[in-house]
Amino acid sequence: MMPLLAVEHLSVEYRSRRGTVRAVDDVSFTIEPAEVVALVGESGSGKTSAALAVTRLLAEPPASVSGQALLNGADLLEMSSEALRGIRGRAVSYVFQEPAAALNPVLTIGEQLVEVIELHTEARGAAAQQTAAEWLARAGIPAADERLEAYPHEFSGGMQQRVCLAMALAARPSLLIADEPTTALDVTVQVQILRLLRDLQQALRLSVLLVSHDLMVVERIAHRVGVMSRGRLVEFGATAQVLQRPAHPYTQQLLRYRAMTAFPGTTTA
Asked: Collapsing DSSP states into helix, strand and coil, what is residue 194?
């Protein structure tokens, strides 16, 4: 069976007056339907550049992207801009690590959700408004009908990220790309958002590309994990195998660091 997403020989270079930096170097991986694949590594490892490149969210120039990103066999990197607009938000959605920056501060939550729903689904008017409230509720926001009239600054960081999840999933995409979705939140809220993401992924049978530096997050939600270092995918496999029997020295180093910094009894389940 064809994978939902097949990334093949993906490379990303950034050009500047000082020269060229290869941030992603010949990276290949697949994501199956209803599977969570994580890219993990330290800051600067290339994991976010790889995720952004898949849906051409990197400005070209200064970025230069090569390789293939095949979504159901169609290469996202070769699509016209018009065709790609039909894919983003509908077939592939994105959740970023800074929810406050992802939301428009001068529009209500309802206006932003309804805009997404009307753009990518058949719902209009009152039906779109009702769908927006349903997705807010599904994302764990109480009194969803009333909160549609609120502005982003009236929500906590965790609630803002729940809104971003609702917006990303409202069009029922087949693939969600989540770039460090819990990093900007405190530990307790991180656990809540991670649990919500896992529950929604299972309920919707959603495929997820998760970008994270946190191996505890990866361990709890990912079926397979790829470890990135200096732009290269140095290890890739089933999560349990990679984290329990790491083959690459860099993965072993990450696991040693996690063991040194973990709090006793810490869990994200």
From this structure: helix
